[in-house]
Each structure stands twice: as structure tokens, then as C-alpha cells.
Amino acid sequence: MITIESYKLDKSDQHICALQTRGNLNSQLLNELDHATDQWGVKVTRVEVRDILPASSISGALEKQMTAERFKRATILESEGHLEATINAAEASSRSAIIQAEADSKAIVFTAEAEKKRRQLEAQG
């Protein structure tokens, strides 16, 4: 006898879990049916489970779990977005300060060179 309750339905990757579970269930059904029909001379070569409909309580629990997982992923993505935005703003501020400092430094050099040239011209008369 095959019991579906023995299959774990709440793995994190439900698509892979469903395919693996369906494959295992197909294999077990094939063995059971082939064994049961062997006495009649019938050989079962293929069995395929097309759809598994869980009880409404299980469906509700799985739906809540999927909703919680989606909310968790959305919260994490939103948090990562805020973190990235904060980092980008800090980098922009830092680059801006560096550019401003370089501009101030160049202005001081130009002013000093202009003053030096003015003094040379005054000395020449």
C-alpha cells in the first residue's frame, strides 16, 4: 500500500519536490500494480500520476507558507535596495567632496601662479 502522507510536501523548492515526489510515487505505483496484476498475467509497464490534489487544509497551509516566503523575499529585496541606495548616495557624496577638493586645490594653485606672475611684472616695471 502506498500512502501519500509519507511524502514531504513543504520543501523549499516545491517544483523540484513535486517532480521528485511524483516520480517516486509513479515508481511505487508501478511496482504495486505490476505485483498485483502479475497473477493475472498482466505486465504493467508505465504509470503516471498527472495531478495530486491535497486536502484543503494542506492547500491552505501551503498557500500561507508560499505567501510568507514571497513576503520574506520582497522584504529582503526591499532592504537590499535601501542598502544599495544608501551606499550609492555615500559614494556620490564622497566623489563630490573629492572633486570639490581637487577644484579648490587647482584654484589655489592658479591664484598663486597669477600672484607670482603679477609680482614678476611689477618687479620688471
TrEMBL record:
Which UniProt keywords are present, listed alphabetically?
Membrane, Transmembrane, Transmembrane helix
Keyword presence, Cell membrane: no
- What family is reported? Belongs to the band 7/mec-2 family.
One GO CC annotation, please? membrane
**Residue ranges of every copy of the Band domain listed in the record:** 19-81
In which domain of life is the source organism classified?
Eukaryota
Question: Which InterPro entries does the record match to this protein?
Answer: Band7/mec-2_domain, Band_7, Band_7/SPFH_dom_sf, Band_7/stomatin-like_CS, Stomatin_HflK_fam
Which Pfam families does the record match to this protein?
Band_7
Location comes to:
Membrane
Name recorded for this polypeptide: Band 7 domain-containing protein
Magnesium as UniProt keyword:
no
Topology in the lipid bilayer: Single-pass membrane protein
What is the protein's major site of localization? membrane
Identify the species of origin: Cymbomonas tetramitiformis
